[in-house]
Design a protein that fits this description.
- The complex is a heterodimer.
- By secondary structure, chain A is an alpha/beta fold.
- Chain A contains nine helices and 13 strands.
- Chain A has a six-stranded mixed β-sheet, sandwiched between helices. A four-stranded antiparallel β-sheet of chain A has the order 11-12-10-13, covered by helices on one side.
- The longest helix of chain A has 16 residues.
- Chain A is globular, with a radius of gyration of 23 Å.
- The two termini of chain A are about 35 Å apart.
- Chain B is an alpha/beta fold.
- Chain B folds into two domains: about 100 residues, D-Maltodextrin-Binding Protein, domain 2 (3-Layer(aba) Sandwich), CATH 3.40.190.10; about 240 residues, no CATH class.
- Chain B contains 17 helices and six strands.
- The two termini of chain B are about 30 Å apart.
- The chains are: A alpha/beta, B alpha/beta.
- At the A-B interface, helix 2 of A face helix 1 and helix 9 of B.
Chain lengths: ~300, ~400
């Protein structure tokens, strides 16, 4: 075990930001802590980093300070420092020796396409490049525990993929990753485990595959020809009919064999696929906030 | 592994020392001082070396030979052949520049007339006045039958030899002006250093907040470590600047010794009156004075997100910085009065204690009390700063209310 939170509570004045939050992290996995804006994700991560302390509850850290690395949501660098100086300074702050920094920096910079920029001042870099530098200084010591607060915000799709690949690669090298996001698609394909919190309270906590099985409705994709009205027979919760194909959500998961028999008797089916629910639909179901403006 | 504060210290130090403002300030400040004093010195010297012609009418027919023999060669006396009115006309028409009229009754009335296109040359006018007074006095004594020796003895000037009386050494000959001058200079140095370097803590803290690096720093270095790094980095950068200036000054003195032979005596006299214990106290009060104010500025920096908001909170702190300079003259005139003792014990005005140490004998108990109070203040500030830092560094955008500040201190 790497970390255990037991009934943790945090208040800002009269505002109860984190309510009785408990979860534990095992080594070598990628954990996603999901929730809409203001759900208490950043406060939770800051408490894990001992920037804030909980008013009630306990946080058991089974790692040393030098073994954890943290990328805060409010990201920043010294604009007048060069990229090399930045990596040197933050590397030392994170406990690396200058020898280790020198040995690692070149490889990381090349990997992130920043090799030619190492002697340039940070202020001369584009925002995307600065985010890459921030990621490098957070991950370059291949920490035992990596905490990333909204790591993908503001990145273009190419860089999102680059960061995701790097997170998975770090996990394969033994790093446990805990990252927060309010964009479910970002967590969908890299998390082993998800923790969903809403208004400071945990609503979902489990292995991704188990959560997908337990939560959410049965989603069915049907390609057909015939009268689309036969798609509706009382077993469905919703039907999005597009004429030649339809997306159907059933009220009960166990109804899908009966539903298949019923529609197959009346329509000519060319495709019938049962999909696991998306993380987004699980999230929406869990927090009961379908169509919430904050959710993207 | 190195202490984390040391990494922050190195970063702060190099960041400051490599900044354009530091480089320009280090080079330009002595240049401006040299330029300023150089211009004043050269202007005065040129003024004194310039030969000025004084036309005169001497109705007494006795003053001029005596006057000429007592005036420097740069003041040339030329007889005016016309009458007084013609001389004034010539002056008005700029044919002559100065005109002296010694009336017949000069020895009775003690009055002569001086006409000039400018009457701002006070040094030369007072020189003429002094010489004329002396001539009249000599004449009067001589008329009463006194010999030359008797007259010289009567007119001899008195010189004060100043002694500072201490318990340990008894009466010790000391120049009051030099003692005061050195103490004043040291207090002024503390004042200037605190005023120019302590606010750097505020700038540096706000910079961390504006650059959004505070959270990464706080997550890996304890707030007390960040503060220690920043404080020491700023202080060492300040000391480094003084070191550069000291080297520059020593080089200047060496050059002065070679260029102006007489200056050796002045330098020796100045160095001779330096008191080593005063310098130990200077370093002590310099460091503690810097800490007291730098911590306040650090706390202000952690409280606010931008310089505009911080400026308002800085004003009272700067006013307190300036207070010792306001009380300096009062304290120096009566360093042992209960007012001077009381005020110099206030930690924020501690440079006044240094002034008292420099010019009088301060009881060790008072020095101990002053240092104790300073240390207590510094510890309270460190405690407060640590708590405000942790939360303040991460609060962006809005000014904290007093209620919020209290909760930061309670929860930090």
């Amino acid at each position: 075990m790497l970390l255990q939170l037991e009934r943790v509570n945090k208040y800002y004045g009269s505002f109860h930001a984190v309510k009785d939050l408990s979860f534990l992290l095992e080594e070598g996995k990628i954990y996603g802590i999901l929730g809409r804006n203001g759900a208490g994700k950043t406060t939770t991560l800051r408490m894990i980093m001992e920037i804030y302390y909980p008013e009630q509850g306990e946080i058991k850290r089974f790692f040393k300070n030098s073994e954890v690395s943290y990328l805060p949501e409010e990201r920043g660098l010294y604009p007048k420092m060069t990229v090399a100086e930045t990596i040197d300074f933050f590397g030392q702050i994170k406990g690396m020796s200058r020898k280790e920094i020198r040995a690692n920096a070149g490889e990381w910079l090349e990997h992130f396409d920043l090799g030619e920029w190492k002697d340039k001042k940070v202020e001369a870099l584009s925002k995307g490049m600065q985010q890459k530098v921030q990621f490098i200084i957070t991950a370059m010591n291949t920490p035992r525990f990596l905490i990333l607060d909204e790591p993908f915000s503001g990145l273009d799709p190419l860089n999102i993929q680059l960061f995701k690949d790097e997170i998975v690669s770090l996990m394969r090298r033994g790093t446990t990753v805990l990252f927060s996001t309010h964009i479910m698609e970002h967590a969908e394909n890299i998390c082993n485990h998800v923790i969903i919190i809403d208004k400071g309270k945990k609503v979902v906590d489990g292995e991704m595959s188990r959560v997908k099985e337990e939560y959410g409705k049965m989603n069915i994709f049907i390609r057909y020809s015939g009268d689309g009205r036969f798609l509706r027979n009382g077993m469905e919760e919703s039907v999005d009919d597009y004429g030649t194909y339809a997306e159907v959500v059933l009220k009960k998961r166990e109804d899908y064999p009966d539903y298949l028999r019923t529609v197959a008797a009346r329509l000519d089916l060319s495709e019938f696929r049962v999909d696991l629910p998306s993380l987004k639909s699980i999230f929406l179901e869990a927090v009961g906030a379908k169509g919430d403006e904050n959710e993207k | 592994m190195k202490n984390k504060w040391f990494i922050v210290f190195k970063k702060e130090f190099w960041h400051m020392v490599k900044s354009k403002s530091f480089i320009l300030g280090t080079i330009l400040t002595p240049l401006i001082i040299i330029l300023f004093f150089g211009i004043v010195f050269i202007t005065q010297k040129k003024n004194m070396e310039k030969v000025r012609e004084y036309h005169y009418i001497d109705e007494t027919a006795q003053v001029i030979p005596l006057l000429e023999s007592r005036l420097p060669a740069t003041m040339k006396m030329t007889p005016w052949t016309g009458d007084k009115e013609e001389a004034i006309t010539a002056l008005r028409q700029k044919e002559i520049k100065n005109f002296l009229y010694f009336p017949e009754d000069l020895f009775d009335e003690y009055t002569f007339e001086y006409y000039s296109e400018t009457i701002s040359d006070s040094q030369r006018i007072s020189l003429i006045e002094n010489v004329i007074s002396r001539i009249i006095q000599i004449r009067k004594f001589s008329d009463r039958g006194l010999s030359e020796e008797e007259i010289s003895s009567l007119l001899a000037s008195a010189n004060a030899k100043t002694f500072e009386v201490t318990k340990e050494e008894g009466a010790r000959k000391k120049s009051a002006e030099i003692s005061f001058g050195i103490a004043y200079l040291l207090v002024f140095l503390i004042y200037m250093s605190v005023l120019s370097w302590a606010p750097q803590m505020l700038r540096s803290t706000i910079e961390d907040k504006n650059n959004r690096v505070a959270e990464v720093l706080v997550s890996h270095v304890k707030p007390s470590g960040i503060m220690a790094g920043k404080l020491s980095g700023t202080a060492v950068a300040g000391v480094f600047q003084y070191l550069i200036w000291t080297v520059m000054a020593l080089m200047g003195i060496a050059l002065l010794k070679q260029a102006v032979p007489g200056s050796q005596v002045v330098v020796k006299a100045l160095l001779g009156s330096l008191n080593p214990s005063l310098f130990i106290f200077f370093i002590l009060y310099f460091l503690m004075g810097f800490l007291v104010f730098a911590l306040i500025f650090g706390i202000i920096g952690a409280m606010f997100s931008n310089m505009q908001d911080a400026q308002n909170a800085m004003t009272p702190a700067i006013l307190v910085c300036v207070l010792p300079m306001i009380f300096l003259m009062g304290v120096s005139q009566d360093p042992s009065s209960s007012f001077s003792v009381g005020i110099s014990l206030v930690p924020f005005l501690s440079s006044l204690m240094l002034m008292r140490i420099g010019i009088s004998e301060v009881p060790p108990l008072q020095i101990g009390l002053s240092i104790g109070l300073l240390l207590v203040t510094i510890f309270i500030e460190i405690w407060l700063a640590g708590r405000i830092y942790r939360i303040g560094l991460l609060s962006y955008g809005k000014k904290p209310t007093w209620k919020e500040l209290v909760s930061w201190v309670k929860n930090g």
